[in-house]
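User:
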Amino acid sequence: MRKVTKLQLRLFPELTLVDDEATQLALLKRTHSWWRTLIRSCVAIVPTSVGGALIGTTISDMLAPYPMLMLAWEPVFVVLLTCLQIVFVLYLVRRPTRLELRHELNKSGIRVCIACGYDMRGLPRDRCPECGTVAEPVASRERREGKL
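Assistant: Predicted structure:
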């Protein structure tokens, strides 16, 4: 049986609000699929690659009279562009998954702030003390979705 890895728990700390590992896996499976990750990764990589190519050719044209400076600049630019792509991919994959996890936790009865992920179980009010976001009461959400 698959287990939730330490990396997954670090990337998606909302999973720690659930004690049962089978439930953690089910939540992760519902919210984090390989095809969503692939699409979000492509959305991040393609624009940064095109933008990087345009910026790189512009700077290379500017540095053409200085061959030694150009030799030193190109590897640095490639490394910086790669780091930017990695950060952008992680952001585009992680953020929507965390929001979906928070919605799934709220549906299952574990009150979590949608905006910041604060554990709101046991709080008397529907306002998050961390960020001030007003949580929608469960009854009105179920009424809107047609469950009541």
